[in-house]
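Request: Have a read of the protein record below and say how the chain folds.
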Amino acid sequence: FNSLLLLFLGIEIISIPLYILTGSDKRNLKSNEAALKYFLMGAFSTGIMLMGIVLMYGAKGSFSIDPALQANIAGRQVWYTSGLLLLFISMAFKVSAAPFHFWTPDVYDGAPTVFTSFMATIVKAGVFIAFIRLFEYSFASSGYDWKLIVAVVTAATLFIGNVTAIFQQSVKRMLAYSSIAQAGFMLFALFSFNNYSKEGIILYTLGYSLATIGIFAVLVKMKDYTFEGFNGLARTQPVLAATTTIFLLSLAGIPSTIGFFAKYFMLASAVKGGSQLWLVFFAILCAVVSVYYYFRVIQSMYFKDGVADTEEITPAFRWILLLIAGLIILFGIFPNMVLNYLYF
């Protein structure tokens, strides 16, 4: 996109159907509550975005994000910067960045699992690409150094997402907080626009989407979303347990999965940029913390007694999970297979 109006229309076209899908399970009170929260918070975010767009339009007289047009904002820099700040807040809300993440756990937990996986992957990936494009063309050329603000938001997102996920008793709710933490790693792409950041965001969105779709597909078949509900899954459904392990290892950034190279490229982009290096070490520490709550699920499946209760698993469903797991490992060993064909 090259217009703020197209950005607004694109995000609203994505968001409005999600409000309906979130509350599609009408007999579930949690689903109804999640839909109401999502709609109210989404409408509030939309209002902030529109206000930001209006201020930016008033400052430069165009909806275009072309940096060349910013030469005409002399005397109106305050209005333009204020518009950018409001736009940043709105986009941070859409990608579940702290402190605008508060809607995410309740909405992800209350929405039907199928639609939760869509919200957490395709929608978030699309909005992040738009966020990065907007940051590259409008924020970077605004004359104001946004890196400190982005660093604070990134650190808060990583900390809140990872620490809060530790204390969850529901795997689905844990994954909601995990998605917040994953957004913190994606925010590293905003620090520097070099090859590492662009390649990293492609790998990250693809790897995160594959692993998240896979783990939520498993959750669809589980009758109990708590950690205890996964006890003994390796004995009753070994294929589900093995593929779930691969999905979780990728989310944790363990080597030989696409998640490892995704995190590597994102952190390398910040190191190459040479700014906010303290945040790189903080992110590594948070990644170590994330291993704990991901391995809680693996521990339940393989090392705890119990009989995990699942719905009927068809052979086709098993093959789909194996395909996703295979792609995660394949792209984790040969990341250039992705980078040679996907770009923006």
